[in-house]
Write a structure and sequence with these properties.
alpha/beta; about 150 residues; Tetrahydropterin Synthase, Chain A
C-alpha cells in the first residue's frame, strides 16, 4: 500500500516567541527563558485528494491561528507551577500574556499541537488523512517529536 506524507513548517522566522520554565528541573531550565519556537507538522494519507494533495496547505489557516493564540508572545505556565499565582498577578497587570498549560517543554508543546491538529484534520478531511507527527524546535540543537 502506498503511503503519502507532506510537511508544513511554521519556522523560527514566524516569531512564535514563547517564554516558559521547567520548574521541576534542577538545571538552569528552572528559570524563565524563551525561544522563537518552530513547529513542523507531517500529514499522512493513503490516498490523495482530487488535487493530488494530502492536505491543502492553504486550508490550514486555523492551525496557524491556534499557534499564534498559544505561542505568539506568550508566557506558558504549568497549572501546577508553585509560582502560578505570581504569574497570574503579572498577567493581570498586563506585563505578560499568560497561557496555562498542563506542563511546559518541547515534548508537551508537541503533544498540544498534535492533539489540536489531529482534531482539525479529522474535522476537515475525515479519515482520509491524519497527522503523522509534530516536531517542536527551540533552536537547531533542541527539539521533540510527538508521533502518531
Amino acid at each position: 500500500m502506498t503511503k503519502f506524507l507532506c510537511t508544513k513548517k511554521y519556522g523560527h522566522e514566524r516569531g512564535l516567541s514563547s517564554a516558559f520554565r521547567q520548574w521541576r528541573a534542577d538545571s538552569h531550565c528552572r528559570f524563565m527563558h524563551g525561544y522563537s519556537l518552530e513547529f513542523e507538522f507531517v500529514f499522512g494519507a493513503n490516498e490523495l485528494d482530487e488535487n493530488n494533495w494530502v492536505v491543502d496547505f492553504g486550508g490550514l489557516k486555523p492551525l496557524e491561528t491556534w499557534l499564534r493564540l498559544n505561542f505568539d508572545h506568550k508566557t506558558l505556565v504549568a497549572f501546577d507551577d508553585p509560582m502560578f499565582s505570581v504569574f497570574e498577578e503579572i498577567h493581570e497587570s498586563e506585563v505578560i500574556d499568560m497561557v496555562t498549560v498542563e506542563a511546559t517543554g518541547c515534548e508537551m508543546f508537541a503533544r498540544m499541537a498534535m492533539e489540536y491538529s489531529s482534531e482539525l484534520i479529522q474535522k476537515i478531511y475525515g479519515n482520509r488523512c491524519w497527522v503523522d507527527s509534530v516536531t517542536v524546535r527551540e533552536h537547531g540543537a533542541n527539539s521533540a517529536t510527538c508521533k502518531r
